[in-house]
Amino acid sequence: MPRPSRLFCEIDLERDGKQTGFVRLPHSVHRSAYGWLPIPIACVRNGAGPRVLLMSGNHGDEYEGQVALMKLLRALAPGDVRGRIVFLTAANFPAAMAGMRTSPIDEGNLNRSFPGDPDGSVTQQIAYWIEHAMLPQCDYVLDIHSGGSSLMYVPSTLTRRHTDPAKLATAIDLMRTFGAPCGYLTDAPNGEDRTLTAAAIRQGVTHLSTELAGGGQVTPTALAIAEAGVRRYLHRIGALAGPAPAAAAPTRLLQVRGSSYYVYAPDAGIFEPLVELGAEVQAGDPAGLIHFTDTPWREPSLARFERGGFVLCKRVPGRSERGDCLFHLGAAFEP
Ligand code: CA
Asked: Is the whole-model pTM more than 0.70?
């Protein structure tokens, strides 16, 4: 680690057995001069084997993964495990406690904060600890996201569209193993990539993420997909002992490439979706209307799909501002 992290992990990740505790983030504020923020962490370790990080609460308002991982953590005994599984169920702890995408302390979006800063804001310090203290001790990271408060997804897995054929094959195998209805591959963004995906790639850790439903709620179907998917994933990489869980349903492989896959609100107003999640659309199809609250006699603005594809993600709240993402598409994966 180039500079030391200020965060201190109470539990010894090299010890066999099941341990729970906190990663302490020093936080000196008016009500607590020498206090720390308690980021919950747990470790289930049993000898040699893969070193896995299971993460949720990267965005605090994405609940499916948090619930799935809490249930798995309570269920697992050391004898169920080969190697080590670390649970970071509320990665951006202040955001998770507030039920918000971003931290109420510094407005930090953890998944836009990597590689982080050991002397930065609370969220930057968490990002730095994850990338520089945690990931170098891991072979795999599964980062469970959903659409959060503003988006709803067809339950999906995703990761980077690796140019290395072996890495791409592993990614696709893990997506098929997890067994969400869809799995999609994304390109690296233009400019600096501040996501956990980039952090994992920098640290040589095999990455998989998800987008499981959302809407600021817990959808039982998506939760069931998460729970079964995590167990299949862990078994596939050799981290769970015992017989293989039931095979997954087929995963539809998709790609998401560039801005033409997205539809944004052209104006501020009330969003009327014109298609449902899961629809197949053609280029030019109407996507949604924006109705003008302040000038109800005006014709609404119409947003269209720039390209054809499968409606993977849809905005949830009615009220929308210009620039809000209304939909995004996936298209059949083309190697
Ligand atoms: Ca997210």
From this structure: yes
